[in-house]
Specification:
mainly alpha; 2 strands; 71% helix
């Protein structure tokens, strides 16, 4: 049997349907709309922050639940460059400020028929291709600046991942509640 060019077709099929579900949920949450992203950038609408923090908690919980019940999860924590992350975040932030979409919401907006989102998808493809073609050079220089170890937050804090997830969840509840109270008082 010939090796697969990409991942196993079953994995690709599952990924395809998870992507459709994610796009649907992003669209239903309203984060695929330009005004929601701009509202987040102007610190007036925190819908996007709520969705991202919730996704972080659900993802963390899922990974540790799967590990606890013995499912094989391939989620290695690898060394990363804080410098490259800051530069990449600045580039991404500029793109979000210009376009009004982040990568996930851009794909969801294109899926719901927003013509301006297609320019963002084109930019992502060009940027991804450029990075892929220059990665071998960047790996030897740029990506070695300010490298961080392979520690996770629970490991760094020397606590159980479950305690970290509970603390993160409680912090999110407090944050979301305070945002909702401020929004309620602003409407009065």
């Amino acid at each position: 049997m010939l090796p697969y060019l990409f991942a196993h077709p079953l994995i690709l099929t599952i990924g395809f349907f998870v992507g459709i579900l994610l796009g649907f949920l992003l669209q239903k949450a309203g984060v695929s709309q330009f005004k929601t992203i701009v509202g987040q950038l102007l610190l007036r609408d925190f819908t996007l922050a709520k969705v991202l923090i919730t996704a972080l908690i659900v993802g963390s919980t899922s990974i540790h639940l799967f590990l606890a019940i013995g499912l094989p999860i391939n989620s290695p924590v690898i060394p990363w460059s804080a410098f490259a992350t800051i530069v990449g975040a600045a580039i991404m932030g500029i793109g979000i400020a210009i376009l009004g979409y982040c990568p996930g919401t851009c794909a969801a907006a294109a899926g719901q028929g927003s013509n301006d989102a297609w320019w963002g998808l084109l930019g992502m493809l060009i940027g991804g291709a450029f990075y892929a073609e220059t990665h071998f050079l960047l790996k030897r220089s740029f990506l070695k600046i300010w490298t961080i170890t392979t520690e996770t937050m629970p490991n760094l804090l020397n606590i159980s991942p479950w305690i970290f997830i509970v603390l993160l969840s409680l912090s999110a509840i407090i944050f979301f509640t305070s945002l909702d109270r401020k929004a309620h008082h602003a409407k009065k």
